[in-house]
Amino acid sequence: MSYPELKALEGDISTCFRCSLCKMVPLPVFKSREFADICPINSHYMFHSYSASGLGYMALALSEGRIPADKALADIVFSCRTCGYCDMACNFIMESKRNEINMTLRETLVREGLAPDEYKKTVQNIKNTGNPAGLTNIKAGDWAYGLDLKKLPEQKASVLLYAGCLARYDKKAMLSARQMAKLLIYSGVDVGILGDDEKCCGLPAHWAGFKDDFKGMASVNADLFKKAGIETIVTVCGACLGTIKAKYPKYGVKTGIEVLHATELLERLIKSKKLKLRKPLNLKVTYHDPCYLGRQSEPFAEWKGEEKTVFGQMKYTVPPREINYGTKGVFDPPRTILKSIKGLTFNEMYRIREYSHCCGAGGGYAQAYEDMSLKAAKERIKEARHVGADFMITSCSHCKAQFEKANASMKSEAVNVLDIIDLAFQAADIN
Ligand code: SF4
Ligand code: SF4
C-alpha cells in the first residue's frame, strides 16, 4: 500500500534526531521542574512512540511499508491530543512540520477506516444535525432566547457573534454566550447571530482526522458567513476561533472576513472606553491559554518555493518560509482584560502562551483515552493551585468543560473555573 501524502513528508520526518524536546518545556522558558512535561500522551503512556518524534517515525515506517496500518498503530495515533505543542518545541530548534506530520498520519488512518468508533460517530452527528452531540431537541439558536438579537442574514449587522456548539448543550457555555451578547449590546456593537442556522465550525472533524468532511463543513460555514454580509466574526469559544481563522485557510477555505475571539473585541472595547470594568473583584486567578486560541490560531502563512537539503538531512527553504512559532496566537487580549479588572490577583502559571499545557480535551473524545485526557486537565489544575490561584480563568468552552470534569475527582485540590467573558461581565456590573 502506498501513501503519497506521507511519502511527501518523509524528508521532513527524517529531520527528527530524537532530542525529545517535544516532550518538555524548552530550557530558556523552563520555570519549574515539577511542571516541565508538556506532551499529554507522553506524560501518561511514557513510551517514545507516544510523542511527536515517535508518531513521526511510525509514519515513516508506514510509508516505507515496514509496519501495517492496523489497530495497534491507530490506538497510538488517535491518542494524540492535537494540541500542537510539539510543533512549537521542534520549531524552537529547526524548521519542522510536526503538526502536519501528526495530522497527515491520522488522516491516512481515517482513510483506512481505523478511526475510533466515537470519532466516526461525532463526525456523522455533525453531518446529520450540525452539532457533534447529534442533538435534535435543542436548536442552535436557543441559547439566545429573549435577547432580541438581530437574526442574520434576514437582518443586517456588522458583527456576527458565533456561539459555538457547546452553547447549545452546556449550561455554562450557554451563559458565557449570553453574557458576551449582553456586553456587546451594552457597548453599542452592531451585533447579530445566525440563530438556528449556526452550524458546528467542524473542529471535531478536524481533530478526528476526517479531512474531507472538515473541508466540506468549512465551505458550508464560509458560504453562510459570506451570505450574512458581515465585516467581523466574533467567536465565544477559543476553539472555534483557531478553527475558522487558521485551519480553514490551511485547508483551502477562505472567508475574506475578519475573525476575532471574544477577548480581542472586549480588549478593543475596553481600550476605546466603550466598555468599563468598574466593579472590583477580589479573586486570586490564573489564566489557561487554550491550544486553539493560542498557538494553534497563528494565522496560516501561504508559502510557495523550493525545499533544499544539506548533508542529506537538514532542510532549508528558498525563499525562506515563515516559521510557525505560535507566537501570533491570541495571548495578550485575555491578559489585558484580567489586568483591567480592579482587585484581581493574577498569577501566571509556569507553562504559558505558546508553551501552554493542553487541557486534554482536544484530539477527539474516546473512552479509551479518558484517563490520559483527564490526567492532562488535573496536571493543569495542580499547576493553577501551585501558583496560588483559586480560579482558573480560560477562554474556550471545551477547556472549561474539561476542567470541570477533572475537578469532580479532585476534592480539595479542585479549582473554580470561569470563562473570561463571565469575569468581564461581573466586572462590567451590568444585567
Ligand atoms: S520531533 Fe523535533 S523536538 Fe521532537 S525529538 Fe524530533 S527533533 Fe526533537
Ligand atoms: S500534538 Fe500534543 S499530544 Fe500530540 S504529540 Fe504533539 S505535544 Fe503530544
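^ iron/sulfur cluster complex. The first strand starts at residue 150 and ends at 151. Residues 16-22, 52-53, 89-90, 96, 98 surround iron/sulfur cluster (ligand 1) (CB under 6 Å).
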